[in-house]
Amino acid sequence: MKLHPVPAPAVEPRLLPLYLSRVAAGFPSPADDYIEAQLDLNTHLVRHPAATFIARAEGHSMTGLGIFDGDLLIVDRSLQAQHGMIVIAALDGELTCKVLDTRRKRLLSGNEQYPPIPIPEDSALVIEGVVTHSIRHHHVCPG
Question: Residue 100: inside a domain, yes or no?
C-alpha cells in the first residue's frame, strides 16, 4: 500500500451536531430529534496536532483491516509504535502502511494476498507514526 501526503490547511474549528441517539445500522428505529453536543472533528481525530499528519492510502493490502484505496489516514508521530499496531513505516526509503510485528521482525498486510515483509537486521526501518483513524468517502450509487 503506497501513501501520498495530504497537505493540512490551517482551519478554524467547525462544530458539527452530535445526535444523542445512536443510528441503527440494521432495522430503522424512531429517531430522537435532540442534539447532544457540538463536535469538532479536529478535536476528535487529532490528539497531538503538532505531531499529526494525514496520508492518503493507495492499494489494497490493508482492506482486511478496514483501510481501502483512497482512504485518508490520520497518523500520530508522538505515539510509541508497539507490536500489532498499524503504522506508517519507511523501509529502505519507501513509505508503506502495515501492521508492525515486532516479535517476528516483519511488516504485515491486512490482506492475505500480500505476503509479510521481513525486516532485515541491516535495513533502514523508520516508523513515521501510528495510524489512529481512517476516513473513507462513501459514494452514493445512482439508482
Answer: yes
Catalytic residue, candidates 29, 98, 123, 134: 98
61 is catalytic: yes
Q: Is 98 a catalytic residue?
A: yes
Asked whether residue 88 is assigned to any structural domain, the reply reads: yes
44's CB contacts (< 8 A; 6+ apart) are none
Is the whole-model pTM more than 0.90?
Answer: no
Into how many domains does the chain fold?
1
Q: Which member of 21, 29, 61, 123 is catalytic?
A: 61
| CATH code (residue 112) | 2.10.109.10
Tell me: the pLDDT tens digits for 84-136?
Answer: 999 999 987 889 999 999 999 999 999 999 999 999 988 889 999 999 999 99
Q: Which residues contact 36 (CB under 8 A, 6 or more apart)?
A: 18, 19, 20
